[in-house]
Amino acid sequence: MHEMSLAESVLQIIEESAQAQNFQRVRTVVLEIGRLSSVEPDAMRFCFDSVMRDTLADGAELQIIETPGTGRCLSCGTEVEMLEKYGLCPYCDSPHLQITAGNLMRVKDLVVE
Amino acid sequence: MCATCGCNSHDVLIGGKRPVRGIGAISFRKVQTPPDKTKHEHPPADTTTRVIQVERDLLARNDTFAEANRRLLNERGVFALNLVSSPGSGKTTLLVKSIAMLQGKLPLAVIEGDQQTENDAARIRAAGAPAIQINTGRGCHLDAQMTGQAMTQLDLADDSLLLIENVGNLVCPAAFDLGEAHKVVILSVTEGEDKPLKYPDMFRAADLMLLNKCDLLPYLEFDAELAITYAHRINPQLKVMRISAVSGEGMDEWLNWIEAGSRKAIAAK
Ligand SMILES: Nc1nc2c(ncn2[C@@H]2O[C@H](COP(=O)(O)OP(=O)(O)O)[C@@H](O)[C@H]2O)c(=O)[nH]1
Ligand SMILES: [Mg+2]
Ligand SMILES: [Zn+2]
């Protein structure tokens, strides 16, 4: 979903970091994308390349770290691994699962020169 | 999906004018000198690189603007709703009907989001409420910054109701908080019962689902119970009302819900 505007947010974060940290070129961008964040890594790669064109991150390598999804069942209290954002608890079939990790997307590191 | 609809914020118009983009606004600034590709692909051995730990969330910027909107709305006792649906589910028709029925009861204003045209804002003004149109251009959702700018231009009354009609799209608006009290998702009976399963993020993000066009149920195969079951599978807390913006069925329940929310917002100032 909306990978294009997310790629624009990445550019913005890069530009703000460039001012704060004084760098001119970005070699690598490390993105952390939660498995439950509804972002398609492939769509993100595609948008990333087009958004970064003619900017200080033109041609930068995009590394995506996919973080696993976990949740807690509000009915039986079990910690469960979540492969999808919506589903039933594998122990008690309850749909009341609360996501505890894996729904964020963030810029983790930049390799700059 | 924005990857295909080309979602971005280049050609945004608010009230027909290009919005002011403040400090830290989404920028499309190109670097002064285009980077030297040859140099980039074969960096000299003495180039010093370093790693910068950034650790910043991609939606944090929007969330900052959304919180500012929410603070302003709360301070002024304005109850704000973000109406989301597929195109054609009946958002504008519902607004027009609601405006007529709330006349003299609750002051209200409308923010209209569409990719192009002032048509919906014109329909709202004809119904007797102040409205401002945001044209998102290729953008497929409203964001908190453009909403904040539209709020300023609207000159909101204290203790009023703000209705925001988002761009018709069940995907992207789910991720963008505008500072509203609630997202209200509208599903019409001319769509598929399984829309909540196909677009779960939106049905999870919403607090209220309006099942619209119920006047057409006798003529359709649509299974309303099934649609509601699917919606509750995604969001067990989702409140559901069956309405028709044309016949007026269920409108009282919807307007009572609004008036109760507004009273709470005013009391919490
Ligand atoms: N029968 C019926 N038609 C409706 C209802 N609400 C909206 N419509 C029709 O659905 C079409 C799209 O409505 P509109 O309000 O423009 O949808 P929007 O794109 O969500 O703003 C119009 O032709 C409306 O007249 C309803 O409750 N019943
Ligand atoms: Mg409309
Ligand atoms: Zn369980």
How does this structure look, described?
The complex is a heterodimer of chains A (about 110) and B (about 270). By secondary structure, chain A is of the alpha+beta class. Chain A has a domain of about 80 residues: hypothetical protein PF0899 fold, CATH 3.30.2320.50. Chain A is built from two helices and six strands; from the N terminus they run H-E-H-E-E-E-E-E. In chain A, the strands form two sheets. Chain A has a three-stranded mixed beta sheet with strand order 2-1-6, covered by helices on one side. In chain A, a hairpin with a 5-residue loop joins strand 3 and strand 4. In chain A, helix 1 crosses helix 2. Chain B is of the alpha/beta class and about 270 residues long. Chain B has a single domain, classed as 3-Layer(aba) Sandwich (Rossmann fold). Chain B has ten helices and nine strands. Chain B has an eight-stranded mixed beta sheet with strand order 1-5-4-6-3-7-8-9. In chain B, helix 3 packs parallel to helix 6. The two termini of chain B are about 40 Å apart. The N terminus of chain B is likely disordered. Chains A and B meet through helix 1, helix 2 and strand 6 of A and helix 2, strand 2, helix 8 and helix 9 of B. Strand 6 of chain A pairs antiparallel with strand 2 of chain B, so a sheet runs across the interface.
CATH superfamily of chain B: P-loop containing nucleotide triphosphate hydrolases
Largest sheet of chain A: 3 strands, mixed
Q: Could you tell me how far the N terminus lies from the C terminus of chain B, measured between alpha carbons in angstroms? A: 38 Å
For the largest beta sheet of chain B, what order do the strands appear in spatially? 1-5-4-6-3-7-8-9
Low-pLDDT parts of chain B are 1-10, 20-42
